[in-house]
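Students often ask why we bother encoding 3D structure as a string. The short answer is that it lets us treat folding as translation between two languages. Here is a chain of 210 residues written in the first language.
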Amino acid sequence: MKKEEIEKLVEKGEMLPLMEEFYTIQGEGYHKGTAAYFIRIGGCDVGCHWCDVKESWDAEKHPPTATKTIVDNALKYSDTIVITGGEPLTWDMTTITKSLKEKGAKTHIETSGAYKLTGDWDWICLSPKKLKLPTAEVSKKAHELKVIVYNKSDFAFAEQQAEKVGENCILYLQPEWSVRDKIVPLIVEYVMKNPKWKVSLQTHKYLNIP
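And here it is in the second language, the structure alphabet:
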């Protein structure tokens, strides 16, 4: 297939730059501890300095893969599919979510919310970043808000983002892994003073699973 043809298919969401896919246990947020199939899509220009999957940033490094193939692979393992990145909303998620839901799967997304919301989602985990703030639509439709706490200033940022989500959105504060020993006590203290928030941990890293 010619490069131009591939680019058109990617633009329509009929192919996506697939970085990796794997069946594992959700380690974070509301669905932690449950089995799910993860699809990691390459491409992200949000640029968080503490990102633990920086190899996902350059979409050119990840081969465009037919969306149908991705869907067929996923459904061999689970009916709960988590699409993450990178930043999956860089791409049109309409085709992949439509295909998954037609076959009875539940669709979850983990996103910074920095781009237009596409796709049909059963669960939206919004993890906003200061460098590119989420759109109003993603904030309003988010089921959970998961703010990564790297330093004390992130608490004020978390409160700003909490004002933008719907009233039923679940609020989480999650320590950035590399500074967890320093940050966890601060989060615990903050949540005890502000119980609308909950603590989220990257439990998959404690369990030493992908």
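Translate back mentally: The helical segments are 3-12, 67-75, 94-102, 136-141, 153-162, 180-193, 203-206. Keep this in mind for the problem set.
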